[in-house]
Amino acid sequence: MKKSDSALQRDVLEELEWEPSIDHADIGVSVVDGVVTLNGYVKSYAEKMAAERAAKRVEGVQAIAEELKIRFDSDRKTADHEIAKRILDIFAYDVLIPEETIKVKVERGWVSLDGEVEWKYQADEAMHAAGKVSGVVGVSNNIAVKSRPKVTDIRKRIEDAFKRQAGLDANAVTITASGNKVTLSGKVKAWHERKLAEQAAWAAPGVTQVEDKILVG
Questions:
Q1: Are the beta carbons of 139 and 128 closer than 8 angstroms?
Q2: Closest CA to 91 of 62, 52, 117
Q3: Rounded average pLDDT over 17-29
Q4: Among 94, 148, 89, 86, which residue's Cα sits nearest to residue 120?
Q5: Which DSSP string corresponds to 17-81?
Q6: Is 189 left (phi over 0), alpha (psi -120 to 50) or beta?
Q7: The CATH number of domain 151-216 is 3.30.300.130
Q8: CB count in 10 Å sphere of residue 21
């Protein structure tokens, strides 16, 4: 039975890991239709040949595309996983970057940043910091900025909710927004009016907290 490409990739990676003459940490393996591509870095020509021999030993390998580069210990380290680690370290020490909400992916020196932040300057700072790391050839900034609630949007939702029920006055409700928090105040005639206003505020884009100070009476 012919091995699948994913099974072949796993077997080649395990063979590289098992071979004592190879430091497999910086070697990547991809497989398409039984053709194995080795890429990344090794420390010597001998290690490069050893990696190729190890891959050829695996049953099911149809051909080898060997794209390994030799990087001596004195060379600057620019392997993808090292670049990613350096970027994460920078994020951890930069108070302007919320590192817990940003994901970093590095492929052949190209950095992709994903996630969500509260402010645009945070996404810009993350992109700037990643771009300074040695070995980075480019940065794709896919970080989304959370939409923030607008008082006009919230008021419109409350007005629409009140209009659906005759006799309710949306002007009795005062709205203030700070960040993603909305505070409702004022005075309404009945509890269900207060509940309508609160539900409408929660439905507005970007709202993560509603403080209801509306009085009933």
A1: no
A2: 117
A3: 85
A4: 148
A5: HH-TT--GGGEEEEEETTEEEEEEEESSHHHHHHHHHHHHHSTT--EEEEEEEE--TTSPP--HH
A6: alpha
A7: yes
A8: 12
At residue 75, what is the residue type?
Answer: D
CATH no. of 5-70:
3.30.1340.30
- Looking at per-residue pLDDT, the higher value among 116 and 179 belongs to 116
Q: Are 181 and 211 in contact (CB under 8 A)?
A: yes
Spatial CA neighbour of 133 closest among 114, 111, 107, 108: 111
Over range 132-153, report the average pLDDT: 81
The residue type of 102 is I
Class of CATH domain 80-145: alpha beta
Question: What dihedral do alpha carbons 125, 127, 129, 131 form, nearest 10°?
Answer: -150
Helix (H/G/I), strand (E/B), else coil: 127: helix
93's CB contacts (< 8 A; 6+ apart) are none
Per-residue confidence (pLDDT) for residue 26, from 0 to 100: 79
